[in-house]
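Hey, weird one. I pasted the Carboxymethylenebutenolidase sequence into the form twice and got a warning about non-standard characters only the second time. First submission, copied straight from the form history:
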Amino acid sequence: MSQRISIDTADGSFAAYLATPDPANARGSAIVVIQEIFGINADMRETCDNFARDGFVAICPDLYWRLEPNVELTDKTKEEWDKAFALLNAFNVDKGVEDIATTIAHTRKLPGVTGGVGTVGFCLGGLLAYLTATRTDTDSAVSYYGVNLDKFLGEAGKIKSPLLMHIAEEDEFVPAEARAKIIEALKDNKHVEIHTYPGCQHAFARNNGIHYVDAAAKAANARTLKAFEAM
């Protein structure tokens, strides 16, 4: 079952998409799904629905609410890309992490959530998922092709929960030098597990995305599921 809910903060309220599992299949744990630069679109809702089918409570908060509520874009047109990049450039990462921390706290109190609460993010969300491992009480974090993550490697020493990272080896939004820097900084961290995907571009796991790679997406998603099963 899915529904739109509202989460309150000291600065106001924001919406979130909530998908809940069949009670017969429920695990008791939950996942906060962190959006790409396109807002809560069909891809994010499908991702939440898939986690719910696997027995997790899944919730995707509207992190653009301070700029423009209810953004829903795709990767199919130049106009949508232009708007997505404008929102990304205006986005406050620190406030975004605060809103995710608020979402985690809210999720822990939801009916049926008796176990861990993890985070998973894609693109912009991949960066934010990494930061949840350094700044929040998430029980497990998964980062898919995070952008600008190399700028926050100084926080790596604060990682206190398991962090799984999926890195595309041909990511056009993360230069090879930045990818190498990320891997070098994190490869010996006992909390971090890194997987790279040869021949894959950015967003290789985006549902119905223009760069979707079926085998790589399935491999990454299986590793993600395993990580959350261990919460």
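That's the output from the first submission. The warning seems to come from a hidden character in my clipboard, not from the data itself. The radius of gyration is 16 Å.
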